[in-house]
Amino acid sequence: MPSSDRATDLAVLGAGPGGYPAAFLAADLGLRVTLVDPEENPGGVCLYRGCIPSKALLHAARLLGDARDAAELGIHFGEPRVDVERLRAWKDEVVGRLVGGLGQLARQRKVEYVRGRARFDGPGRLLVSGPDGDSVLRAERTLIATGSRPATLPGVPHDSPLVLDSTSALELSDVPRRVLVIGGGYIGLELGSVYAALGSRVTLVELLPSLLPGVDADLVRPLAKRVKEAFEAVHLETRLEELKEQNGVLRARLVHAGSGPERETQELEFDRALVAVGRRPNSEELGLETTKVRVDRKGFVEVDAQRRTTEPTIWAIGDVAGEPMLAHKATHEGRVAAEAIAGRAVAFEPRAIPAVVFTDPEVAWCGLSESDARAQGRAVKVVRFPWSASGRALTLARPEGVTKLVIDPESERVLGMGVCGPGAGELVAEGVLAVEMGARASDLALSIHAHPTLSETVMEAAELFLGHPTHVHRPRR
Ligand code: FAD
Questions:
Q1: Using CA positions, which residue lies closest to atom 37 of ligand 1?
Q2: Nearest atom (ligand 1) to Cα of 331
Q3: Listed residue (120, 149, 187, 146) closest to 318, CA to CA
Q4: What is the pLDDT of residues 126-175, one digit of tens each?
Q5: How far apart are CA 418 and CA 431, in angstroms?
Q6: Of 60, 183, 394, 469, which is most buried, counting CB atoms within 10 Å of its CB?
Q7: What are the tens digits of pLDDT across the range 412-467?
Q8: Which residues, judged by CB distance below 6 Å to any ligand atom, belong to the binding site of ligand 1?
Q9: Would residue 235 show up in a list of annotated catalytic residues for this protein?
């Protein structure tokens, strides 16, 4: 039986990068807010077992890669010695510092933080169970921000300690000798890169014909080349048909499923397998059947432009409310929902949500991609500025990158941007601003960019569109 009863203006379920910014803003706007989450502090998947720990480890991977690449410049560091325990502790310190800070911010705003899991017992009544027992929370309005969890694969022994998901892979309990990464999306590539840099022999298997399925091929190419060098093997158009634990090792059967008559089968052994085949929304165990909230066939909560569900007092944001499952999309939605709940006229209508793959090189894009434009049959002009023509890229010994713009040929407005190369995740911010502001190619070309920087590649891509680039010669037709 619930031990206590409390009431609030707004209950926020889940304190990830969707839930906590929404709770903070709603409190700033004068609402009495209760934030419910199982962890000790706000942070969610992103801080505890997603964006932040993975980027901390990728930073370490990048240092190792840069030290190795320095040989090309005549600088030799010798073989690195990695103290895995210290690396793990440093990553945990980064996480601890951030989530501790969020706990403090919640207290400063007088957001009531309740540890536990909540489920609906009708709209407006929530049952919360946590370390301090069960309680009832009566809420005028509720915001669902319960996020997502790793998807599983049928036929894979997920209960084996040798089979990792992104959460256990980030714990970095050791550096296994041979790792099989199942899935060539961003999580598989990022975590595979970490383990490869730390010394594991990484094999990646992806069912589709390219890494980062759905991303423009020209952006993926430089990354694919480097991944092939860093990993033991990359098997595209390949299906994992069986994975079995036997005598302390994993035996995998891979079947090449590409075009062509023959189906090539390989049996390989691994010390660990990392399953990175996507994520599923956390919508099942919320008692939504006691409300009018509708969920689509993939499990995403259905919402309108203000992120209100089909139950008038309930809103939903972040991973549980649909793609793209990214922290910054969750945050923006959370802030929109908080304002809507506070009675403001707002809507979630982004033109450009950036996506970044934090590998080396990074891949980033925003707005309309070339492949989406083609799929929609939309006429666009695509320009690509090769980093081999960028002074800054050469001084960094990284000429393999590319910056591209997708432009409306009529209005000359920038519709999308893509970048591959170190720092792409920072560069794409200019594309987001351009798309959101309705900038024309001439706006980018006429804005002075500092020299020598990689940001000049954005300006020069715009100059390419206008026909007069400085560092690339295009003969007149
Ligand atoms: P979450 O962060 O998932 O938070 C939801 C919270 O709700 C969790 O704390 C959960 O425990 C809690 N919860 C669940 N059920 C209940 C309940 N019944 N009651 C109360 N609380 C509940 N995104 C990026 O943008 N950039 C990146 O670099 C990036 N890297 C990633 C790397 C990895 C390895 C992973 C796994 C994800 C990464 N993501 C990244 C995705 C990002 O983590 C998510 O998009 C983001 O965390 C979604 O935020 P959210 O607020 O919707 O939910």
A1: 50
A2: 51
A3: 146
A4: 999 999 899 999 999 999 999 999 999 998 999 999 999 999 999 999 99
A5: 8
A6: 183
A7: 999 999 999 999 999 999 999 999 999 999 999 999 999 999 999 999 999 999 99
A8: 13-19, 36-39, 44-46, 50-51, 54, 117-118, 145-148, 166, 187, 282, 286, 318-319, 325-328, 330, 358
A9: no
